[in-house]
Amino acid sequence: MAKIFVYEHFCALANPPQTETLPQSLLTEGRAMRDAIVEDLARIPGIAILSGDSSDADDIREQVKRADWSLIIAPETDGILFRLSELVESSGGRLLSPSLQAIFLCGGKDKLARRIDPDIPTPDERPDVYPQVWKPYDGAGSVDTFLVPDAQAAQLLIDRGYGELYRTEFVPGLAASISFLVGPEIILPLKACRQILSEDGRFQYLGGEVPLETNLEQRAIQLGIKAIRWLLAEAPFVGYIGIDLILGERDVLIEINPRLTTSYIGLRQLTESNLAEAMWKIAEGKATEVKWKPGRVRFQSNGQFEIS
Predict the structure, then answer these.
(1) Domains of the chain
(2) For the ATP-grasp domain, which residue ranges apply (predicted)?
């Protein structure tokens, strides 16, 4: 029987509470992802799930050593995902999520834009014209992200202590995401999603809708495949990975999320297959087909969804 250790950072911190400042939105989102993937893994014959209920490093090492695979769900913020994945690799574990080197290459929005293949378009950095987008260099969940329409708004943010944020041009278009299941010889694109963001200039992630129209989905897959191939050439990995894009007059890559993303919540509702089983089999090097249902799913970051 194969054992898979599933660790979600905020759920582990909340059991028992390790901090009084635990962000509830990220806890809710993390719990929704964890519950979805655990439910799907539990339906796979011959799979045993090892729980990640403790954030203690020694407890994590013990579970990693017992497991055949370890799936880490955590934000990139403050190097959290990197440190947890490093703990897995240093304990002799196998990651069922992107490798330490892949996480490093995707980390830091400024560094990714400079490292990535120049044929993969990204927003221009620190543009001389407005509007701009300001965000943390290693943020997650749209925390401290701002649409900055003009120099006056920029000065107000600087006065509030946000002057050191990463700055890029604002690229108009459809906010979208595309996720992939990756194995030693396989790159399987899943359905592209429209991202639902707040309209208050803060780009708060509220959820998504899947699928996209066919032509938009093909554009998302095309750009996403380029990014995945670049990353694999630099740092081989297996597992689930998500890519955020803008599809418009100019399609651009916004960031690569080297982890399970909230889109999984909607994607799993639109398939006849078990996405967790497909992820595991592809990581093992086994060719797997994912069958999709007709219809549309609108999902929220808290795990709720509607099917139409």
Answers:
(1) 2-106 (3.40.50.11770), 109-121+171-307 (3.30.470.20), 132-169 (no CATH)
(2) 97-284
